Each structure stands twice: as structure tokens, then as C-alpha cells.
Amino acid sequence: MSFRIEEKLNLRAENLTDFKRYIFNNSSEKLFKPRKIKSLYFDNNNFGMYGDSIEGLVPRKKIRIRNYPNDKDNNFYLEVKNSSVEGRFKTRKIINDNKTFELEKNGILDSQYGICFPKFIVSYDREYIKYQGVRISIDTNIIYKNYKNNNYFSDKRIIVEIKTSIDKNVDFLTEKFPFQRIRFSKYCFAVDALKN
Asked: What is the mean pLDDT of residues 108-123?
């Protein structure tokens, strides 16, 4: 298990070109080709994960099944994002179509939150960049969908995620960019936008 730091920036569409220009003019490299990501988030019937995330409580987690439509990687991944006093880490394992269907139908039993069922689907386009040992992802075209009724919401924001190991200081990076540093969770935003 390796702990990591995650910072998020909120960019306006008109700032994206300047942001990319700065990054690519300063010894960065593309890690992967851009691709679409689709995540199905689970929670219990009391929305315990959502509540703990909003309150900033630890330990907490988010459980999702992720896949990459239109990509040569056609696997489904069961991912658990953990936030603890020590830091954040993610576990991930490949599951097959049958297991995916079973989890969607019967839920996931979690030791902290009990039985968790599918709640929201979040999809978006992501670019991956490496800059001075830091992984940067740029998420656009974010769409949130209610799993039960298919109501959806399109988010026009551009979310930049900065991820690195816990022993690296990312202040040098965030200070270079005059963009709003935010506390942001796609799952929590989906709940806020579509729960009712």
C-alpha cells in the first residue's frame, strides 16, 4: 500500500489552453493517450460514504466499478479509494462481466458501510500528463447519471487532479497556477446534483 497526495484545481475552459501550454513547455510528457472513463459508484441506503466525505471524516472510502469505453482495455475494475489519518490509497482488482453483473444486482458488502448498492454513474474524458515526477490528469465532459432513473447532469467544469507520493511537496506546482484549488469529489457532486 502506498499513500498519495491528491490536489484538485478547477479550470475555466478559457484557461485550459494556457495551462497545457505551460505544462508542455516545461519538460512534461503524455503518459497515455486520452480516453473515456466510466465509474459506477456504490453506497449504502443511508449514503454513508457521501456523508463521511462531505464531513471530511476518516477513515472513509469510496467504492466503484470502473471501465474504459472505446479503449482497448475492456476490463472492469473494482476499486476502493481509502482515506485514513495516514493518507490516501487505492486498491484495484479486475472483475469479469459476471461478477460485475452480480455486484450491480446484489450489492457489495463492506465492513464499514454494510451492503452498498449502485447509486450513480460518472463518465468523463481524461488526459494523462507527467510533470516533474507528478501525475496530472485533466477531466472534461463530465456527466453524472442516476443509476435508478437515468436522470443526468452535464458538468461544464474542467477538473485537474494532481497526484503524487505522500513524501513529495506539490506546493511548487499549485503555486505556479492561478487557479482555484478545490475540495471536489465527482461522486459527492453526483449525489448533490441528482439524489432527489
From this structure: 98
